[in-house]
Amino acid sequence: MSEFNAPRRGALSFYPRVRAKKETPSIKGYGTENKPLNFLAYKVGMVQALGKNVHKASPSFNHEVVVPATVIECAPLKVFGVRAYEKAEIGFIALSDVIAQNIDKDLKRKILNFGEKSQKNSSTEKKASSEKSGADKKHGKSIEEETYTISDFEKELKDIEYFTLLVHTQPEFKKTPEITEIFLGGTKEQQLAIAKEKLGKELTIEDVFKEGDLLDVKAVTKGKGFQGPVKRFGVRTFRPKHKKQRVVGSIGPWHPATVMFTVARAGQMGYQNRTEVNKKIIKISKNTSEVNPKAGFKNYGLVKGNYALIFGSLPGPAKRCIALRKSLRPVQKVGVQLATVERIIINQ
Q: How far apart are CA 180 and CA 70, in angstroms?
């Protein structure tokens, strides 16, 4: 009989296992294409997709197969600002923002004092004005002048490294939107041209991705609260005659008398930032009738706008905001590969 082998439990790459600081994920887009590089969507639920397998090395090649897929609602993002970054001593620092004129009223639910002058006392106001005068002096702007405009960005283009779009979501099921930055590809001249075109307008999923693209998906996972070491790390339980069953036998030596961080301990499980790579978009559509169940998706309801089908599962519960970007290391997965989705099977 072979000897029992039990390697250590829990991936150290996920330490510390603490709750996420915020529920809206932040993700940077990378690429050279002259277009936006990342997007925000909302997780809806799972369905089954029927299509023909085009992977030649698979036993089911050229056969109809049924695969699991996740539905995400991709409502258009509203571009409410443009941000310019310049070089700093370490990394990059935001130079200034240009805000659109037509601001949605729901944005004030997220940024309470948006568009209003802050009420400060005299000492704080003097300090802020002196700091602003120094920064404005550097960029050739007087204190009396108004905030930055697109024309100011064009004048200082040589000092700017890159531009991003400030966007907020427009969810159907709640009034408070999520806010993030959309990174742009191409040269900074091309980025500025995209920013001028999109400022105050909407950004759709078709502007960023197309069917067949491989994505990196980032989201906050389902929260499971405070859990013990058996559920949290999968350690073995003791036999029923043991004094305790669902514990770690020894948490450390006497000398040195310490508990190492690698020991499985009880604590927070779930509600943590996770990134899953190489998730394939198998369908992008506006026809909600082919994906909506009669009574709607559990814990979500009906999909009312653009949606996308992602092969496999995604982190997080229904209504969780997820961030998408083009995959950094695109690797075509082995197994089933669908050319097109012929039919969507909905579990009523």
A: 23
Q: What digits encode the pLDDT tens for the residues 132-163?
A: 455 555 555 544 455 788 899 999 999 999 99
Q: Provide Rg for the chain, Cα atoms.
A: 25
Alpha carbons 53 and 58: distance in angstroms, whole number: 8
Q: Which two tokens stand for residue 106?
A: 């729901």
SS3 state of residue 99: strand
Same domain (yes/no): 71, 87? no
Amino acid at 17: R
Residue pair 184/164 in contact by the 8 Å Cβ criterion: yes
What distance in Å separates the CA atoms of residue 221 and residue 315, rounded to the nearest whole number? 5
Statement to judge: residues 57 and 91 lie in one domain? no
- What does the block give as tokens for 291? 């994906």
234 and 295 inside one domain: no
Nearest to 315 by CA among 78, 14, 29: 14
pTM for this entry:
0.87
